[in-house]
């Protein structure tokens, strides 16, 4: 043990034996070195003792059965934790390399606190850039091995706190989480690829069953935030755990498992029903076509897995076509088969395609409202409460109308489709996947896709642009510049991945001078990827707490999984957790606290958005958005308050008023914190501002006592060229409240800009270049 009169204990010694085994135990009798500090004749000496268990503080997760883990051995030390005043880390930045910085929160960060880093049998002290009793910025030693998993211990004279891992594989969600043998699916998260996107990439996926069997999956494609893999064809139906590993950390490096349900693929009967055999034709009346197509659909449904065949041609209909379970519709090609609304289309129609279905698919045809759509439902495709639906090579030509309603849907897939029209409403639709589609906006629509609390949404390799923006006097061929918006109206949007999408010339149509009210679009538009509506719903202090609950007064929301609790001040500061249960004010959280809050802890609860990745997108605006003195909200990426654990990496942002607009705001209750963001390797070209950080209280409220609005945000390895005004601008109240706190700018290529210092606290500018 540490002598009470001794100074900070020396660095621990590490053993060289490989440790292995699941869930804190070693099942192959391998030994593990632990450090025990003792006082002998007034000097500190270190003795080693062998143990047959992992130190519980490291919380090792491993699959069972445990495979041989690829990569080098990882044998960290196990220093003893002693005393009640040891420092503990509550929250921290998960990704960093040598000579890169990390934000930490915690308790007992005393002036003598050090942060000890272990990597590949090396132990070094981190450089402390800023330190306060409950937060710190450290920079990892520049001579650490590149892109390894690092363990960091806080230590002071009272002893060592529990370690945290940097660059450890972190799996957030599966898409889809319900699959069949042989299907390609994805793990989403962060730190998923060896080298974290630098040089060659590798990743590993291992599946375990409840019956004690393990299976390696074939990995198809890897980036730091997404692993595409094939579900093993030999997998029996059942419940499985997915284990991801990025190749570093050995037995310590496995991500926590994610649940997967495996079911046999849906088999269609093979029987086909040609609509022409039921009387449909390009020359038939709309009434006759509608009747004939409905008969074919009914026959396919009764065949338990039939396919409705739509030969090449144009088919006018006057009423909706019912989507039915376990059926497919197949045309001759998106540019060959058309289903169009006739001039006599019914005013009472339930959309053009409507139903709450399971196992439904459409391919190779185009739906066209033909400027004739009307009905009891405002969107031509209405599929609320549906599941397992696939659209492949389908056109939705709906100029002048909103397109789809997917509220409360799950497992909906769009591939190589074309969307022409206004907005599609995703509502609380979850496990939604859009890949290689094109979106062409019309009628000054607010956005292309709008989620109100969806969970598990993936947009990959899509394009978005105006349909035809040559006429400045008409919004018929314009959108307002927004592609995807996540809104907290019906709860938190979490687990979102936007990767390798491309936008072209997206900017709101200019207003006339003077403005023509009712004709000109709202200029406060144009945020291409935006998250908003993450509003505080309750704020106050904790009455009681334990490892995975807090008790508070006056919070009445009973619906699980729609709100997050964020500690904005006091013990446990910086931690955020999803609320999964509320029983008479005792709130249960989705995972335990690392540092348990107490009565000093101020908590804000709201529809806060969480775990979002924006990766390798090319987002393009119009020159007017950059040069005009008149305001537009044109931005590439905008987390507009109440956004947690946000990553934007390797994006190109061009001709935008702000490439990244990071807003932390306040509505009526508490405030809407933006905590722990990471912006790295982004390129800004010809923007008015490359980066804009903005924080402002509602109606000038004084809220500094509730904690910072924006915290733990890192801008790393970004480059800006051709910025019209400045590369970085911060807009904060002149009162000097520290609303932007512990923001790091490091290794960026930015020109030197004069910054207002009011409202900023503990900023770090480290090794940036002009």
UniProtKB/TrEMBL annotation:
SUPFAM superfamilies the record matches: Pectin lyase-like
Chain ranges passing through the membrane: none
Annotated InterPro entries: Pectin_lyas_fold (IPR012334), Pectin_lyase_fold/virulence (IPR011050), RHGA/B-epi-like_pectate_lyase (IPR024535)
Domain of life the protein comes from: Bacteria
Region Disordered, residue ranges: 58-84
Gene3D superfamilies noted in UniProt: Single-stranded right-handed beta-helix, Pectin lyase-like
Domain Rhamnogalacturonase A/B/Epimerase-like pectate lyase positions: 273-387
Name of protein: Rhamnogalacturonase A/B/Epimerase-like pectate lyase domain-containing protein
Source organism (scientific name): Adhaeribacter rhizoryzae
